Each structure stands twice: as structure tokens, then as C-alpha cells.
Please model this.
Amino acid sequence: LQEQTPVFEERYLRYISQLGKGNFGSVELCRYDPLGDNTGELLAVKKLQPSKRSFLADFTKEIKTLSVLRCDYIVRYRGVSYSTGRLIMSLVMEYMPHGSLIGYLEKNASVGLSRMLLFASQICKGMEYLQSKRYVHRDLAARNILVASDSLVKIADFGLTKIIPDDKEYYRVTQPGESPIFWHAPESITESSKFSHKSDVWSLGVLLHELFSDCNRHQNPKRLYMQRISSNTQGPAIPMQLLFVLKDNWRLPAPAHCPARVYALIGQCWAYSPEDRPSFSSLSDQIHSIAQEETL
Ligand SMILES: C[C@H](Nc1nc(-c2c[nH]c3ncc(Cl)cc23)ncc1F)C(=O)NCC(F)(F)F
Model:
């Protein structure tokens, strides 16, 4: 690990509660309290599942990925924590008190249009920044957006992030894993499993659909797609059926109360061919102008 990686001494990390579980281990709310008087700061500590060697490799890769990212719209990496005794290594992140966007929107149904557009533009700016670093997130979804305050959201969970090689415009994935295909662009679902900034744009479209559906679990993308591809489809037939309806130009329907301008913008992100999809900066500009129109 780079020498400038800040180290949090495990013995001062006071466990408070579990924030959530991932396929790597769990994320816990801790207070780093070296003075032992509860004046220390709250942190989100991603504990790596012990022993699994592959996890260690992925983990150090995630640390490498995160440690170079410095952006107001990306959850801040703070450092690592080791416990020499029990050979556990943890990734220390800033703690986001309002949790994930999904939970936040379920609790705060009264998020108005202008705040939705503010969140959408912050996510676009975070993605513009990632693109400037040639990073492809590959898991952009409302569940992976964290809420810092009532007016600030940040992109999180860089476990699946890849860096596009300098000589290519996309990243080809070998290990499929249980990928969230309902957020994936067609070219990422087909055998080519190609991921690019434009496939992240597709996922952003699905994220905006979640956002403007108030992350309503009855209208979530997976449920809507499964209804369309007849929910009795199982297993490997699902990606095939999904591709079929997308090729046939069927798209997730406009969420209730979603302004036509916003649904038209979401539709641009779902252009079948990647090069027809807008860039993140164009999306930012369009969201900005919609926000101006809508508030008039
Ligand atoms: C496994 C962990 N799950 C959860 N985390 C939090 C959380 C609240 N506040 C947080 N502050 C910093 C972090 Cl890193 C997480 C949280 N809340 C609910 C969860 F289910 C996670 O990392 N999820 C991915 C992402 F971070 F994108 F939401």
C-alpha cells in the first residue's frame, strides 16, 4: 500500500452498529476515539472477510481505486485499519449519516423536483470526474448512492470499478459474478460484456428512473423488467429475454409524476448503441436547463 495511506489504529475503533453487508464482508459504523472520551469522529469501516485470498487482492485494488479519488460527489476514502492479531484489514470511509438513497427516499417521500434534479446533477458531476480518471463504475444504482445531507449525495461502492486501458475505449469483463443485469447496458449483457463510460450512462438512466420513482420498491427496475419479460422466465433465459425486449425498443415506462423533459433525458441514456448516448457533461447541462425551466 502507498506510504501515504493513513492508518487508523484498530484498538481505537469503537464498534457502534452494522450499516450493511456486501459480498466482501460488512460495513460498520465506528467511532475513532483515541482519547477514549467519545469525542472522536464517526467513520464507516468496511471489514474485509478474513482469509479469502481473492478478497484481499480485490480489497487492495479497491483501496488503490479509492485513494486517488478526490471529489465532492464521491464518498471519501479515509484510510485503512489493520489488526495485526486477527489479520483483519479494514477500509475506512467517511460516514454518511443519511445512508443510501434508496432508504432516504423511502423515508423522505417529500423530496421535490428541484432536489431530485440537484441530486441527479451531483451524480452526473461525480461520474464526469470518474470518467476524467478513465474509471468505469459498473455498479451505478440508487443502492450505491449515499446521502450526506438533505442537499448532497455521493457515489459510493467502487468494488466493481475498472480502469479503462489507455489504448481502448472499453473494459471487457471476464468474471461475470452476480452482476445487476437490470442496470446494465445491452453491450454489457451480451457475451461481449463490454463496459465503457457509455455503459455507465445507461446505468445512470436506470438510476434516474429509480430516483424519479422515489425508489418505490413496487416500481423498481428489476420488478418492472421481470413483469415485461413474463416473470416465469428463469435462469439464463433472463438476460436473453431482457436483450430481446431492449432490441425491440421497449424501455422502462415513465415513472408517475415524472416530468416529460426528465423522461426524455432518461430515454437518451437508453439509446441502444453506446455512441448515441449523451456524455455526462451533456447530461449535466440538460439537467441544469430542466431545473431552470421547471422552477420558472
Ligand atoms: C455494505 C454497505 N451497505 C450499506 N451502507 C450504508 C451506509 C450508511 N452510511 C454510510 N456511510 C458510508 C458507507 Cl461506505 C456506507 C454507509 N447504509 C446501508 C447499507 F446497506 C455499503 O457500502 N453499501 C454501498 C454504498 F455505500 F454505496 F451504499
In short: Residues 140 and 204 are 6 Å apart (CA to CA). DSSP finds nine helices and eleven strands in the chain. The two ends are 51 Å apart (CA to CA).
